[in-house]
């Protein structure tokens, strides 16, 4: 059974997993048992009790019950996951097959994917265990800390992700925001619990990545990369005749191809004029400029001129444009497949140039219109619930109370913006939400944002991470073609001066050389594929998330110290330790990378490179340099970050932080 196309598999799997995680009956199959449905009802009742600010009877009891439910099933999940993935490979194989049976229908099961998954258990096991450890530290350790402090102080204090003790819950808008955020976290946690184990949810997130980047289609990867490189060379030649010198140096270099693609997509989203046409009309550009000005005014806390009027205008613009987007998207994607396909092709034509369109991607979309429509409609409904409903609620409450207030995600009126922590928290969340909403609005349709993110993750990052591997595969492929041509030339043009025995000897030597080259390079490339897959799962789709998490964790550590010194609240010690532990989990990843790098170098040193020809020796030396340079990852603005040095800095920071905490106490 051959694998489906990457885009086909992506869209199909995402829709199936999302539908299963929210308990939808897909293909007449229910995911939840009656016990799990009963737990879901209890969880929703506890959340409803919290969300309803008018119900003031036993609020602490409701929160404690909610945290008990989440904590009990989370610990059960973590315990079961650790007990399962600390077994040997033979005992884990039935567990993996059971997971695949639970998540895949008979028509969806792919034997090649199952074989790949079972053959990479040694890589899969430590990643799952690390995920369980991070999940425990970031989710359940704060709950336990809150319980301990509750028992000591006599007042209910539940930390993230259960409660925000810094927000004034006496304000109904602050309370509503907390409960909206809690509902999102609770649904995520419950989705993990409902699947039976944490690693089921982890498998859901990793399925696309493992099938896409793992060794699923490496037999055709060399030929595909050769075609891509030839297409890039043709495109560069065409652009060289029309472009300026700076454009040639920056954008036409194959090394900067992913960067060029990302810049093109972002410029189109903000309405920049490019040779392929404008994405936004003049009114949309004007509205986008007003939106950017409103966002900058809101973020800048020093500007006190008409803040309510500015935010009111901004919220009205956002609400009208967002409503227009949702209505337009629902009206477009509730049509029949032919009309929806025309809309999708129109979006692709706007976002992609003639040389950038991928026919295979377009064909896979056209063959999955129904699934794509479900995904877009689900996204639109989610945007309506989590964005427009709070905005409309804020307007109604403004008319009722006479005071201008907007709940999440437009404003955080319940956070004390005069405090450093409140201002930074407000700034971080406002920037994140405003940027996301601005991208959605600037694109004109929600589908445009989806295509943009899809392009960056599936094309640009894929080409970027496999660039050096592609060059190696291209060289090996060309070497194979050369050997085949030599063999054909010997067979088709036998020399009259050379005897038959001499020709047979040459053919025999050529076959031996071909087998030697194939075996050695296949072994070396397989090792590099495995290592590259390991690196990709850690860094490819998490570079920005990792950097953002570390940045916010450092802010949390510093603010915890400020809280300990200048405030009578005692939870600063606990939050500082939690933030520091989260930072250390990212440092552990650097250690894992160095271990894998050492193993790869040991295999490379055993390779008999001195028996190769001069071009092959050059390839080997380039490959060796690549292997030695993979112990770092690059971040925008900051350049390359060495994980070993980063880990040492984190250890020193942790020791210094502990000394300060002990000194303060």
UniProtKB/TrEMBL annotation:
Keywords: Cell membrane, Membrane, Olfaction, Receptor, Sensory transduction, Transducer, Transmembrane, Transmembrane helix
Source superkingdom: Eukaryota
Segments traversing the membrane: 127-152, 172-194, 248-270, 282-303, 376-400, 421-443, 544-564, 570-593
Keyword Cytoplasm listed: no
GO molecular function annotations of the record: odorant binding; olfactory receptor activity
GO cellular component, one term: plasma membrane
Keyword Iron-sulfur belongs to the record: no
Mode of membrane association: Multi-pass membrane protein
Localisation per UniProt entry: Cell membrane
A GO biological process held by the record: signal transduction
Protein's name according to its UniProt entry: Odorant receptor
């Amino acid at each position: 059974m051959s694998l489906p196309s990457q885009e086909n598999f992506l869209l199909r799997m995402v829709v199936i997993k999302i539908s299963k995680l929210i308990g939808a009956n897909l293909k007449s199959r229910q995911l939840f048992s009656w016990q799990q449905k009963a737990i879901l009802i209890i969880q929703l009742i506890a959340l409803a009790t919290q969300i309803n600010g008018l119900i003031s009877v036993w609020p602490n009891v409701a929160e404690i019950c909610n945290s008990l439910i989440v904590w009990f099933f989370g610990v059960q999940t973590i315990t079961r996951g650790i007990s399962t993935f600390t077994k040997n490979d033979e005992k884990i194989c039935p567990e993996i097959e059971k997971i695949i049976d639970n998540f895949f229908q008979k028509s969806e099961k792919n034997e090649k994917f199952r074989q790949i998954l079972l053959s990479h258990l040694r890589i899969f096991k430590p990643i799952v265990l690390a995920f369980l450890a991070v999940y425990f530290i970031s989710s359940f350790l704060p709950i336990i800390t809150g319980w301990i402090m509750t028992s000591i102080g006599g007042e209910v204090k539940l930390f993230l992700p259960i409660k925000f003790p810094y927000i004034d819950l006496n304000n109904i808008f602050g309370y509503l925001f907390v409960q909206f955020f809690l509902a999102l976290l609770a649904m995520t946690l419950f989705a993990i619990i409902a699947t039976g184990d944490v690693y089921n949810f982890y498998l859901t997130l990793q399925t696309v990545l493992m099938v896409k980047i793992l060794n699923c289609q490496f037999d055709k990867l060399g030929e595909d990369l050769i075609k891509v490189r030839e297409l890039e060379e043709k495109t560069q030649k065409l652009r060289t005749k029309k472009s300026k010198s700076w454009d040639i140096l920056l954008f036409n270099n194959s090394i900067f191809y992913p960067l060029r693609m990302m810049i093109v997509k972002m410029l189109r989203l903000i309405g920049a004029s490019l040779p392929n046409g404008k994405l936004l009309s003049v009114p949309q550009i004007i509205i986008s400029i007003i939106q950017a000005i409103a966002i900058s005014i809101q973020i800048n806390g020093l500007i006190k001129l008409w803040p309510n009027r500015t935010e009111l205008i901004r919220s009205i613009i956002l609400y009208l444009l967002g409503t227009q987007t949702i209505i337009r998207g629902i009206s477009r994607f509730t049509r029949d497949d032919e009309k929806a396909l025309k809309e999708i092709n129109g979006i692709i034509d706007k976002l992609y140039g003639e040389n950038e369109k991928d026919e295979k991607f377009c064909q896979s979309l056209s063959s999955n219109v129904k699934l794509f429509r479900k995904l877009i409609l689900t996204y639109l409904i989610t945007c309506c619930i989590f964005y427009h409903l709070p905005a409309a609620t804020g307007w109604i409450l403004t008319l009722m109370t006479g005071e201008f207030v907007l709940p999440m995600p437009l404003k955080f009126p319940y956070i004390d913006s005069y405090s450093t922590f409140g201002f930074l928290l407000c700034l971080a969340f406002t920037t994140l939400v405003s940027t996301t909403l601005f991208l959605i609005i600037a694109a004109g349709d929600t589908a445009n944002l989806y295509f943009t993110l899809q392009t960056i993750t599936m094309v640009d990052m894929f080409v970027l991470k496999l660039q050096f591997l592609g060059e190696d595969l291209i060289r090996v492929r060309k070497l194979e073609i050369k050997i085949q041509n030599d063999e054909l030339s010997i067979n088709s043009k036998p020399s009259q001066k050379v005897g038959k025995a001499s020709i047979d000897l040459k053919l025999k030597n050529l076959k031996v050389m071909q087998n030697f080259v194939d075996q050695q390079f296949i072994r070396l490339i397989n090792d590099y594929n495995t290592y590259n897959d390991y690196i990709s799962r850690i860094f490819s789709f998490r570079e920005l998330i990792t950097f953002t998490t570390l940045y916010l964790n450092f802010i949390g550590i510093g603010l915890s110290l400020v809280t300990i010194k200048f405030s009578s609240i005692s939870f600063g010690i606990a939050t500082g330790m939690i933030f520091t532990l989260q930072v250390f989990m990212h440092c552990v990843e650097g250690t894992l990378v160095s271990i894998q790098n050492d193993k790869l170098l040991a295999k490379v040193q055993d390779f008999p490179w001195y028996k190769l020809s001069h071009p092959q020796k050059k390839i080997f030396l380039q490959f060796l340099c690549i292997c030695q340079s993979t112990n770092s990852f690059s971040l925008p603005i900051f350049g390359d970050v060495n994980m070993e040095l980063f880990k040492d800095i984190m250890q020193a920071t942790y020791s210094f932080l502990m000394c300060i905490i002990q000194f303060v106490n």
